[in-house]
Amino acid sequence: MRDSVTAAAGSSAAAGAPAAAVDPAAFLALWPRLRVLARCSPGDKFMLVSALRQLREESRVDEVVAVTGDGTNDAPALTVADVGFAMNSGTPIAREAADILLLDSSFSSIVSAVAWGRSVYASVTRFLQFQLTANVVAVAVAAGGAIWLRYSPLSAVQMLWVNLIMDSLASLALATEAPTDAMLDAPPNRPNDPLVTPTVLKHIIGQAAFQLTVLFGMLVALRHYGGLDGTAMAALFGGGGGGAAAAHSPHLLETTLVFNAFVQMQLFNQLNCRRVRDEFDVLEGLTAHPLFLAIVAGEAVMQYFIVQYGGEAFSTTPLTAAQWALCCGLGAASLGVRGLLRGVKLAGER
């Protein structure tokens, strides 16, 4: 192989040769232009894949290697590759050595397999981005409020509802989107890439900082303006719609506003988390995923009924139209925060 690689350094096709050690320098010179390896033996396939894997471990190339085969002699290359595709019509040894079995024995199914593989990877990353952001904020608000105010702004039952949004409903909404053509245009993920990439971490930290600033700012404003009359701030912070539960807790308006603003920010952040590579439009293709729309709409409707009619069971008091507008506006601001974060580039972002 060393002689054939060296001899073919100026062309895009090379003739096969008996198995031998590859000259790394000659291989690197040829590899960017190599498209066809004529008369390739199983040993050559194994050597080609092994050379690429070794050079990647040395950080000299970034390629993720896939191999297809259907014969027993293809098993070594299928085993050493990052992903091995075997035809259903192949030998039992080839099928056993492969990572993915093409049931229809069609090469076109490889494209579908790659698309769905990237979709699963993106779904896990989406959910992690949403889950970590919501958990950081929920824990910080509950713990920080308990230390500062001597009571938690989020009650136990409210936290149960928040956990339902963060876990079951969010996973259904974010993990059920079908793959798109744009996923095939993106570079592949390296095997050692973390699920929480620098881009995802940037949005987790940025959104969590924004949400914590808003929620603790609301608590400060509620304590300062709650008793004022005749001002615009009093219209927002000076009293809700009342209710029987209000008589049992002097802080019910504060906790209801913080709870509602927190949930609204999570609902809008679900839209942000649909895209984890700093794409421009998080609403692109939204109408093609009715399940996502139905889940988010269901969460919004349930939140309305919990706030307006939950009463003592959920430790809430009905809010006015102005207070609902405030909470929804703060939630929608999460979309703008994502736009600002797109302009921030961190080391290691791809």
Automatic annotation (TrEMBL):
Mind telling me which Pfam families this protein's record contains?
Cation_ATPase_C, Hydrolase_3
Q: Which residues form the Cation-transporting P-type ATPase C-terminal domain?
A: 152-339
Q: How does the record say this protein sits in the membrane?
A: Multi-pass membrane protein
Q: Name one GO molecular function term.
A: metal ion binding
From the record, give the transmembrane residue ranges: 128-149, 200-222, 291-309, 321-341
Localisation per UniProt entry: Endomembrane system
Could you tell me which SUPFAM superfamilies the record lists for this protein?
Calcium ATPase, transmembrane domain M, HAD-like
* Record's keyword annotation contains Metal-binding: yes
Q: Which UniProt keywords apply?
A: Magnesium, Membrane, Metal-binding, Transmembrane, Transmembrane helix
Q: A Gene Ontology CC term for this entry?
A: plasma membrane
Q: What name does this protein carry?
A: Cation-transporting P-type ATPase C-terminal domain-containing protein
